[in-house]
Amino acid sequence: MPGEAELRLRERLSKLRSAALLRGARVSSEVERLERQLERIEHQPMGDEIWHVVELARDDDRPYTLDYVERLFEDVFRIHGDRVRADDAAIVAGLGSFDGRTVAFIGHQKGRDIKDRVRRNFGSAHPEGYRKAIRMMELADRHSIPLVTFVDTPGAYPGVAAEQHGQGGAIARCHQTMLRIGVPAVACVIGEGGSGGASAIAVADRVLMQENAIYSVISPEGCAAILWRDVEEKEKAAAAFKLDAGHSLELGAVDVVVPEPGGGAQTDHDEAARLLGEAIREALEELSGASGEELRRRRRARFRALGVFV
Amino acid sequence: MAERIDVSIEQRGAPVQNEKPHPNTCPRCDSHYRDDELDAALWVCPHCGHHFPMSARRRIEQLADPGSFIAEAEELRSEDPLGFFDLRPYTERLAEAELKTGLGDAMVIGQASIDALPTQLAIMEFAFMGGSMGSVVGEKFARACDSALERRVPLVSVSASGGARMQEGILALMQLPKTIAAVEDLHDAGCALISVVAHPTTGGVLASFASLGDVLIAEPASLMSFAGPRVVQQTTREKLPDDFGLAESNYRLGHVDAVVPRHELRSTVSRLVRLFSDAG
């Protein structure tokens, strides 16, 4: 029996097929991608299963941005500082070589041990971090270097200094810069995609999401506290706003769901990196050849199309 | 040791402490007004200058030349893409908000003139589900940008929002890049965005179009912060500064261009519309 999600995906697929003549090559590659997705998502998580995904996405042993960077890229050089006031360790950025070609990367970074976690503020960035990300995006654009981002944050840091240094404006401008650059951009949601602090570096031409990652407008705890007036209802909240990869794909927020090793990415970092690397490679290949202007136009159109209303 | 006094009789008639004050009672100076008094005063306390919330409809009346406003995209309504149900279904909350405000969602857009100069307006309604931004608000803002750029006129936005609308899940978050993409299109066409920040402008709206105006104007004492004071307090357990996130501290810290009392808002916006209309 096909699930509701599968039916909707099939519907989207049939719409795309009929539009293929009108919109050319991009659509046919999208059809193929959707077909592959369809095979993968015969089953979408519900209720308890969604909460299990939240736990996997937050697993202490899950690979973080730099685990992927060291496995996928060579000759890595990391940039530091926002050139205004500080270096925010919750966001890392730099250049590296991927399949012999230079790429720029940006990612949220969580720490492994207590000291590192505190230094990296549990992956919650201040405006300084978003300004560093903007620096990297502009550098990539200046030198026609494709951009790969890794999204893994519970959310931007809600602190007094963060607000005083312009958190809202920095996140807005980070989104804006990603919509401006004329180089291919691929975003990977690898763990927690928490709110505006996550989407700020995910406004890409292709948005990939690992199968046990989550992507949401607010943390389940935050949502439970506001709507249920009780943080303990977090499991209900998570199930209600469907923050798993299958639903994110169905709603159009992400383009590709990337498989993980059995049991989750934390069980085998090398294999997780290999699978993610393959998906990044494929996405970059699809995007190669398009002009900067074309990429920008399509990227804006892609995000402008998101939303459901009557 | 002082003797215990039985206070039960005095307490009997005392007001219940947690009861919400009447909406027309000034939270700052306790003065109380009739609707028509506050309306005539632009919903600013005549005694102490406190700015009460102002409906989108009244804001349009204040900003636009009389009779010049032509609403657009009024027919748009939210769907319930997630089948969202917290303590109550999302669809019920939507219907209730529409009954309460008479509006289809938390933003009103349309064409208008201000002192005879053509402009586009995009005005948020906080009374509609806390001004939260879901698919309809995002779409309306994007259409306001398109309407402005087609007519080559400045866009004036007034934001008042608690942030993204949780009930629409990830699609609500996607309204951040969506509205920002629309601002980019507007700016590419050489049109200006004049962003007016009213109380409160927080979360996803502050982290998207509201922060990207060519100029930012805030009403006095408006809260403009990405995270609300309660969340910051709970997360950091720091004592917050008294003026945390307020328009005045944002002005001091360089995040807004001007703090303008509501009585001067129309003339300030009008001046900016003229300056941008005469540019280039």
How would you characterize this protein structure?
In chain A, strands 1, 2, 3, 4, 5, 6, 7 and 8 form an eight-stranded mixed β-sheet that branches. Chain A is globular and about 45 Å long. In chain A, strand 5, helix 9 (195-199) and strand 6 form a beta-alpha-beta unit. In chain A, helix 1 (4-23) runs antiparallel to helix 2 (25-40), helix 3 (47-57) crosses helix 11 and helix 6 (127-142) packs parallel to helix 8. The longest helix of chain A has 20 residues, at 4-23. Chain A folds into two domains: 1-43; 45-304, 2-enoyl-CoA Hydratase, Chain A, domain 1 (Alpha-Beta Complex), CATH 3.90.226.10. Chain A has 310 residues and is α/β, with parallel strands linked by helices. Chain A has helices at 4-23, 25-40, 47-57, 65-72, 114-119, 127-142, 160-164, 167-180, 195-199, 220-228, 234-241, 245-250, 269-287, 292-304; strands spanning 74-79, 91-98, 101-108, 147-153, 185-194, 206-210, 214-216, 256-258. Mean pLDDT of chain A is 90; it is low at 17-27. Chain B is α/β, with parallel strands linked by helices and 280 residues long. Chain B has two domains: 20-52, no CATH class; 53-277, Alpha-Beta Complex (2-enoyl-CoA Hydratase, Chain A, domain 1), CATH 3.90.226.10. Helices cover 36% and strands 16% of the residues of chain B. Chain B has eleven helices and eight strands. In chain B, strands 1, 2, 3, 4, 5, 6, 7 and 8 form an eight-stranded mixed β-sheet that branches. In chain B, helix 5 packs parallel to helix 7. In chain B, 48% of the residues are buried. At the A-B interface, helix 7, helix 8, helix 9, helix 10 and helix 11 of A face helix 5, helix 6, helix 7, helix 8 and strand 7 of B.
Write down the CATH class of the largest domain in chain B. Alpha Beta
Question: Strand-residue fraction of chain B?
Answer: 15-25%
Count helical runs of chain B. 11
Helicity range of chain B = 25-40%
CATH fold title of the largest domain in chain B: 2-enoyl-CoA Hydratase, Chain A, domain 1
Helix residue percentage of chain A: 40-55%
- The sequence of SSEs of chain B as H and E is HHHEHEEHEHHEHEEHHEH
| Parts with pLDDT < 50 across at least 5 consecutive residues of chain A | 17-27
- Tally of individual domains of chain B: 2
Q: Strand portion of chain A, in percent?
A: 15-25%
The geometry of chain B reads as: globular
- Average pLDDT number of chain B: 93
What's the end-to-end separation of chain A, in Å?
29 Å
The largest inter-chain interface, given as chain pair and residues per side, is: A-B, 55 and 64 residues
